[in-house]
Write a structure and sequence with these properties.
Largest sheet: 4 strands, antiparallel
CATH topology of the domain at 1-30 and 40-60: N-terminal domain of TfIIb
Number of strands: 4
Strand content: 15-25%
Mean pLDDT: 76
Helix content: under 10%
Oligomer: single chain
Radius of gyration: 31 Å
Strand order of the largest sheet: 1-2-3-4
Low-confidence stretches: 31-36
Order of helices and strands: EEEEH
Number of helices: 1
CATH class of the domain at 1-30 and 40-60: Mainly Beta
CATH architecture of the domain at 1-30 and 40-60: Single Sheet
Length: 97
């Protein structure tokens, strides 16, 4: 099984406060029961390459994402149903007869 390490752009280490030094890597864990039919589970670990800080992450827990800015999103989806009358102005002087 290939283990791929991925650096996280803009991430800050909670221990040493260094930016762009954090990576995510898979870690194979052995199950408590030594059953042949049971496959080993794969966990995810966050690690800082600057200070060595490690933290185990649960793969079933969804990542926290920032919500969309609701005001901008709703404003961009608004349609204007108001119709204004247009008045054409004639700027030429009236003809004298």
């Amino acid at each position: 099984m290939k283990k791929t390490r991925r650096f996280i752009s803009g991430a800050v280490c909670p221990a040493c406060q260094e930016a762009d030094r954090t990576l995510i890597e898979p870690v194979d864990t052995e199950s408590a029961a030594a059953d042949i039919n049971e496959l080993p589970t794969q966990a995810i670990r966050r690690r800082c390459v600057a200070c060595g800080f490690t933290e185990a992450l649960d793969p079933e827990t969804p990542a926290v994402t920032a919500p969309l800015p609701r005001a901008r999103y709703e404003k961009s989806r608004q349609t204007t149903n108001k119709i204004d009358a247009v008045r054409i102005l004639d700027l030429t002087p009236p003809k004298s007869s």
